[in-house]
Amino acid sequence: MPYLTTLVTADLRSARNRFTRGGWGERFGALAATLVVALFCWGCHSFFLRIFEGILRLRSVESMLPTELTGSLQALTARLLAMAALTALSALFASSLVTGLAAAVQARDLPLLLAQPLPRLSLYGHRLLRSTLAAGAPILLFLLPTAHALGTAWGHPWRVTFTAAATGLLLTTGTAALALALVLVLLRTFPAGKTAQTITSISALSLAVVIGAVRAVRPERLFNPASGEDLLSALQSMELPALHFYPSSWMTDCWMAVASGDAFRGPLTSLALYCALSVVLGAAAFVTLHRHGWIRAREAPAPALPGAGAAGRLGRRLCALLPRPMAAVARLELASITRDPGQWTQLALLAALSGLYLYNLKLIPGDQRIVGPLLALLNVGVAGLVLSAVALRLGLPSVSRDGPSRWLPETSPLGAFKRLLAKSLVVGAPLVLLGGGLTSAAALLVPAPLDLKSHAVMAVLLMGPTLAAIAVGVGARFPRYDAADASMATIGSGGLLGFALMLLYTGVMTVLSARPVFSWYLARVGLHTGPSTLFLASLALQVGLSLLLAAGALSWGARHLERHR
Asked: What secondary structure does DSSP assign to 297-313, as a single string?
């Protein structure tokens, strides 16, 4: 226990030093993150409070509703909570696999700790604590406002919140320990590179499945029901087999028992046993398998990614179309992207989000022939947000990926601007394919005039290479050569500035696309000649703005690289 206390104290002191000695960029980032967390908690609390208060209002008229709909309103509330908690448990397990792998074998302080005469159990407790905090903090930020909303509706806000905090810690600790044991078993069986790829793939796919399952039950029916019967019908439709056998259901059963004044010894005992058995299993796996897994993680090479060979051959053929010096830089950038397992596993989550957006287009109420042009305009904004997130992930760490070997491209005869241009072309190619495919698929689902849909597709096609150029240029202006992972370049002042510029550019492009849409509505009532006279002017402004921003961002980054050569 004294060893564990020493390790935790050192972590707390290091976190305090990073905050107090960091620059204004880090402090602004912490303030922005705090504001986002506060808004997220407020949104969760407001949403569930409205639902719980609506259910309680139905208790006064329960005798007037059909018997097959009512049953027990308390049981229906518990079902809603169990579904929400099961979603949180799925996300918790997925993130625990990733954080468990990082804490067990990839942490930079592990060589120093393993060289010390530390007891294995103390080191296990330290690794488990890190994994639990990293994976469980976002989940608790969702569970605690939900529990407080339940307590507020039932008249016991702080009792339910305290119970949620205690049971949430049991759930997150047990799940993190179970995920850590699974990671060590996988490291004992498979190479380290294959284990990391498998874990990230499982995490991304599980999150995609959870997002799809939550959207399939149409939760918007809970937020604005037309009547009490609609609300009860929506609650009854949310059901999974064996829902009461999940640890998350035991946790929400404790909440409901505290809110209604019932005993909750049974579900609390089950949850405590789950946590204890998981911690013991994780300790046994750590003591017996950790050293061997850590050694394999240091020695085993990462295997080739599935599909990277075919993608690489196609990309090299396309890069050969560029001038020879730029083609070499483009091939190097393509190899850096395709060999990163994180880029491939994000495709599953991105595909799920894109599919949900296309599915939601058909569920928008109103006359599709009237709202169709507005939906075509919405496609520009949504596609811009998606492309901005992808460009931030792919393009901003581009220069930072050179790392300590950055002297190699700096000594080449190729100028900094052309080097950045080659990188932006590689990053922009998938953005063009993604944005064009998403907007074209949405245009097929939206009954709008052909010229408006064509304008939206062309605007998004312009946004792809421009967003890539902005990301690469800002990444060159704020490089992170010393970071252990190049993706850390997205965190800090460079990431904030780059994302802000991309969002501003997306907003301006959406506004420029809005003028023909509103002209079409005015033409419907005979007040305007229609969008045909504004189509070319709006498109010309978008082309000019895109070229200006792309050239400016790349020149800004190139000048910084030349000055610090």
From this structure: HHHSPPPPPTTHHHHHH
Work out the number of other CB atoms within 10 angstroms of the CB of residue 66: 9
490-525 tens-digit pLDDT: 666 777 788 888 889 988 888 888 877 777 777 766
- Give the Cα separation of 295 and 462 in Å (integer): 48
Torsion of CA 398, 404, 408, 409, to 10 degrees: 20
3-state secondary structure of 290: helix
d(CA 418, CA 424) in angstroms, rounded, equals 10
The 3-class SS string of 477-514 reads HCCCCCCCCHHHHHCCHHHHHHHHHHHHHHHHHHHHHH
Calculate Rg over the CA atoms of the chain: 27
The per-residue pLDDT for range 134-151, each reduced to its tens digit, is 888 888 888 899 899 988
List Cβ neighbours of 446 (8 Å cut-off, separation of 6 or more): 361, 368, 372, 375, 376, 379, 453
Helices (H) and strands (E) in the chain, counts: 21, 0
Rounded Cα distance between 375 and 443, Å, is 9
Rounded to whole angstroms, how far apart are CA atoms 92 and 139?
7
Give 446's pLDDT tier (boundaries 50, 70, 90).
confident
Residues 242-264: what's their mean pLDDT? 80
Residue 311 tokens read as: 């993608």
In angstroms, rounded to a whole number, what is the distance separating the alpha carbons of residues 255 and 244?
14
Give me the phi and psi of 303, to 5 degrees please.
-75, 165
Catalogue the E-assigned strands of 34-186. none
Measure the N-to-C terminal CA separation of the chain; round to a whole number of Å: 50
Gap between the Cα atoms of 8 and 445, Å rounded: 54
Q: 3-state DSSP call for residue 252?
A: helix
Length of the chain (residues)? 565
Alpha helices in 362-492 (DSSP H): 368-394, 407-410, 416-445, 450-477
Distant-in-sequence, close-in-space partners of 129: CB < 8 Å, separation ≥ 6: 8
Query: How many Cβ atoms sit within 10 Å of the Cβ of residue 366?
Result: 10
Averaged pLDDT for residues 446-462? 83
Give whole-number Cα distances, 192 to 197, 293, 375, in Å: 9, 8, 46
Mean pLDDT of 316-344: 71
User: Closest Cα to residue 173, out of 70, 281, 83?
Assistant: 281
Average pLDDT estimate for 259-281 = 86
Q: How many CA atoms lie within 13 A of 19 on its CB side?
A: 8
